[in-house]
Inverse folding.
């Protein structure tokens, strides 16, 4: 038996709990950005995914608060650039530490003991400790109407950095990557319990 | 040591392998749609996620082939409706069976031994055997230029159906849900190996 919820008849908080509980596991985009005065920002987003390989696009969605953009979204749009840092078990505690609401002037890299480094294609700061990093240029944005509605940022991936032990040519070794996915609430899942299904 | 790939200097196939290998685990949106003549369609998309709870939005991205939309995207746009069916371990083989390229006139529900059922808010067919189903109305679309580029379909979730044993109020019990995530190639991951991290 299934229970039915009409979304128009339940609280937004319950809709959030149901959707974030059912749409799992979500990949984590740990988004690095830089403000025009050089302050670095780093925060995790699980409303994040790959969209296509041609062009190579990723997206992340950031809710607004009273019509105000979150720092990551604001700085990505302002600078036209952001990084995506892949979250493995090794860096998951540091990722969690960056999910706090820091004042805008705080550099989450410094605050959370992470090393910022830079690629060749963008000026967006990346997490040296993460097993892989993507340099992205903002491709387009979709701003949904409403003071609490999200802005969706599409980014074109211009460079991909991967720790060598994680690579087998251009294949990714998932045991070596050890990526973490987001569930709901305080929950996370590893990618350690996996299996293969042959494509039909 | 990390290896750097400039995306402009590598093959699209390798970009695909790297990005789909690194952006993991991805939730699977098993998308149900109906053509105007009543033929039902069902296919899995892992370029899929939740976007927001206010409004309650999900998205999926479907690549075009020679400028042609995939069936799921075409029928969703045509009818203004689609369902998202959550993939658990119990239905993962059936999900994989629906990933084949069937001719447009084939009903994947019938072909793959799945039961179509309908909710109260849309006419999009849903998978009875899945542990949860979302009824969605197309909210907006973004069509990226290019014959092989994706169309992104944003859907507003208007009803949520969840198997009762998976629910604890409006909380989702992840052990009972037993959701499956997408890795790259033939790879999948369960959500069985999980842990909690307190929000800082």
């Amino acid at each position: 038996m299934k229970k039915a919820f009409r979304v128009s008849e339940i609280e937004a908080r319950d809709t959030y709990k149901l959707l974030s509980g059912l749409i799992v596991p979500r990949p984590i985009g740990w988004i690095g950005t830089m403000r025009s005065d050089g302050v670095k920002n780093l925060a995790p987003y699980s409303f994040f995914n790959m969209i296509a390989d041609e062009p190579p696009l990723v997206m992340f969605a950031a809710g607004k608060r009273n019509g105000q953009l979150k720092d990551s979204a604001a700085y990505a749009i302002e600078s036209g650039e952001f990084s995506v840092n892949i979250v493995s078990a090794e860096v998951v505690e540091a990722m969690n530490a960056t999910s706090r609401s820091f004042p805008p002037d705080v550099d989450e890299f410094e605050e959370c003991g992470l090393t910022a480094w830079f690629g060749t294609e963008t000026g967006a700061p990346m997490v040296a400790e993460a097993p892989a990093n993507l340099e992205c240029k903002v491709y387009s944005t979709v701003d949904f109407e409403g003071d609490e509605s999200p802005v969706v940022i599409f980014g074109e991936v211009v460079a991909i950095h991967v720790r060598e032990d994680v690579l087998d040519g251009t294949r990714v070794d998932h045991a070596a990557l050890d990526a973490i996915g987001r569930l709901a609430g305080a929950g996370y899942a590893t990618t350690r319990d996996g299996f293969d299904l042959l494509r039909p």
Summary: Helices of chain B lie at 12-22, 71-79, 92-97, 108-111, 174-177. The longest helix of chain B spans residues 12-22.
